[in-house]
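WARN no homologs supplied; continuing
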Amino acid sequence: MGWLLLLAAACDTEAGPAPLATAGSAGATSSASAGTSGAPGSAGTPAGASGGTNGGSSSTAGVSGVASNAAGAAGVAGAAGAAGAAAAAGAAGAAGAGGSAGAAGTGGTSSAGGSGGSGPGVAESLQGLTIQVRCGAAANQMRSCNYVAPADANCNSNQLRAYATATAKMGGAPGTFYDVTLHVRGIVEANVYTGGTSDMNGFYVGGNVGGQGGPQYSQYSLEVSSPATVYHLNQLDPGAQQDKYKNADGSVVHHFGFVIDYHETIKVEGGATVSLFGRDNDCLMGRNCEPPANDFGKCTLQKIAGLTEQQVPQGASGFDGNFVWIDVEQSAISK
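OK structure emitted
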């Protein structure tokens, strides 16, 4: 493409992991053991059943039974006497007093997001992840611009490279996976991807550029190291979405500012690297120009509501390049 070129700054942020709040442990419930009831005394042998000697034995057994009964008063039942003079049953031991219930544990703080609460939680380090690429010289009837100087030899090499990068490290525990809900906003050059899945709002999981897209158009992606996944952020889906940006001859023009604004949930392992990239192979990008795409004679700048000038300088402030801004809405342990 015969367009002039000028370097744009990329944003690179890195933050340490945020602590994971855990739910408080429930108080242990204690109880005293009930007193053991005495076993019945062994029955005494009948007196005189086999003569005087046996009668004496039965009498002894009966005494043993009484002694056991005495033990039963302390919580152990005496053994019943041998048959003949049956020993009295030992008194049942007194039941132990019931233990007091333990105090309930305090629940974990929900804003930590570690166990399903609202707020960034362990994904706090991803909050405000952004890349912002300013336009250099305008080209192609004002709707494209350079982001590196024209003298840059890479601009004619057709080599795909990253011209903007921002990286952060996910908080939480390695080996634990989290569902992180993001609010993705931006104004970017559009592209088309194939081989993955689309949410039909600009968000495309997996795949590569293809169809009416190509490496000369910017590829904006969010890439997670574990589980290794590439999320493309600027998919211009076929159908009604593409129709909005077609030329009179039916071809799709990418030289405009494609507004993205959606909520998506991604999976991230604790401690994983999360990176935001802008890539292409020709040093040019579509400016932040309002459609229609075939209106090359002018460029009306667009703005996204809800972002301050300190976050992203847009519109009247003169920012006419591309940007992506990510807010973290909540994180929770993946189930």
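The radius of gyration is 39 Å.
OK
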